[in-house]
Amino acid sequence: QVQLQESGPRLLKPSETLSLTCSVSGYSIRSGYYWGWIRQPPGKGLEWIGSIYHSGTTHYNPSLESRLTISVDTSKNQFSLKLSSVTAADTAVYYCAREEFDYWGQGTLVTVSS
Amino acid sequence: SSELTQDPAVSVALGQTVRITCQGDSLRSYYTNWHQQKPGQAPVLVIYGKDNRPSGIPDRFSGSSSGNTATLTITGAQAEDEADYYCNSRDSSGNLRVFGGGTKLTVL
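Structure tokens for the assembled complex are given below, as produced in the milestone run.
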């Protein structure tokens, strides 16, 4: 059974960098598929952030691209998200998922507040 | 275009059939996935590809597509189907993913 688990700081101040890691178990990232990040502001819809292949190839949401870095560590079977210069508008539940969207993490709420 | 448009809310009587639609130019070229999300939970994939259901998804859920519109059909809606439903697909380049704004389904 494929499982994903997000981890990282849950409270940030404006202008800081959001950093999250998704740990994958039950499937080797090296075996294929893109692996992605999706977020959901409180009470709002889902927004695709971006994705990465085990080779390091990335695709980013153009609206976030200037602040966004997604990386992969195949030795740890993990992939990570960094979003710089956060504001209150970045407050959301952040999900990681296999990008066929058949497996999702439980999500983690990240709050940006001074 | 990278936008997918959904009706914000739809209601259905218990046991009746409901159709939830998703519109977007990219849907002429790419399949649509459908996700169900209940309060406080992660989304769950209910339809993928042309009209495929992951293991464990009841066969009352089905998908179809015509032109720029994809449709999720629930035949014989149950109380437990009350949830938010999101479509997702690719943008016109095929490299980026996009989600619709979501449809809140109420089962009366």
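The mean pLDDT of chain B is 96. Chain B touches chain A at residues 33, 35, 37, 42-45, 48, 54, 86, 88, 95-102 (CB under 8 Å). Further analysis is deferred to the final report.
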